[in-house]
Amino acid sequence: MTRPVIGITAYAEPASWAVWRDVPAVLVPEAYVRAVTAAGGRAVVLPPDDRDPDVLDVLDGLLLAGGADVDPARYGQLPAPRTESRPVRDAGELTLVTAALGTDLPVLGVCRGMQLLAVATGGALHQHLPDVVGHDGHRPAPGVYGDHPARFVPGSLAGRVMAGVDRVNSYHHQALADPGRLTVTGWSDDGVVEAVEDPDRPFLLGVQWHPENEPDPRAITALVRAAAAHTRPTSRPHPPAVPPPPHRHPTSI
């Protein structure tokens, strides 16, 4: 049986490895790939690309990974002092999300990915959560995950996926202020939105925590299962190809 193909949106960040330091790179934490593979899926990394959403034609599911803040201009605000956005990544992911929302493609948004789903459907964010809840528990220290209680609406997609779970991890300094057209179905103990979904779609779920770093990454497992049941539509006509930029010889590194 062919494994369902799960596209994972990638970070575009300076990275260091071997003798190379701060080289522009496209990457995802391996935990996402491991979780997709363990659930029976085939992970494919998607670099930021806003030329078209055609890659969706060959995917069975889309995973919007975590990362830097969504550009506040996308929801009509100026950036706050602690906001660090990646407009190029926003453009590429929103191209995919906008197209995916017009189909039944299973979609899971993780942390930033959940926030992007809300923004794509008309929502907005709190740009610095400690200013709202009065504590740093959702991001205790650089590189340190928080841990807190969570509750989910019984019978909702989040409630079914997370049945029996009452705590989740946490690493974020922004949160949903307005879910847009999505339905909120999960909260932390201090009222922060932890899950959103679209009950009119077979599988569209956003989670504020990081399931890829949980011992039981059940939200990712649920995405892969939904993707396995998904039937790809006949490929839509593609627009004319955009000519590539003039060739330039790369600089050796």
From TrEMBL:
<feature type="compositionally biased region" description="Pro residues">
    <location>
        <begin position="236"/>
        <end position="245"/>
    </location>
</feature>
<dbReference type="GO" id="GO:0033969">
    <property type="term" value="F:gamma-glutamyl-gamma-aminobutyrate hydrolase activity"/>
</dbReference>
<keyword id="KW-0378">Hydrolase</keyword>
<dbReference type="Pfam" id="PF07722">
    <property type="entry name" value="Peptidase_C26"/>
</dbReference>
<dbReference type="InterPro" id="IPR029062">
    <property type="entry name" value="Class_I_gatase-like"/>
</dbReference>
<dbReference type="InterPro" id="IPR011697">
    <property type="entry name" value="Peptidase_C26"/>
</dbReference>
<dbReference type="GO" id="GO:0006598">
    <property type="term" value="P:polyamine catabolic process"/>
</dbReference>
<feature type="region of interest" description="Disordered">
    <location>
        <begin position="228"/>
        <end position="253"/>
    </location>
</feature>
<dbReference type="GO" id="GO:0005829">
    <property type="term" value="C:cytosol"/>
</dbReference>
<dbReference type="InterPro" id="IPR044668">
    <property type="entry name" value="PuuD-like"/>
</dbReference>
<protein>
    <submittedName>
        <fullName>Gamma-glutamyl-gamma-aminobutyrate hydrolase family protein</fullName>
    </submittedName>
</protein>
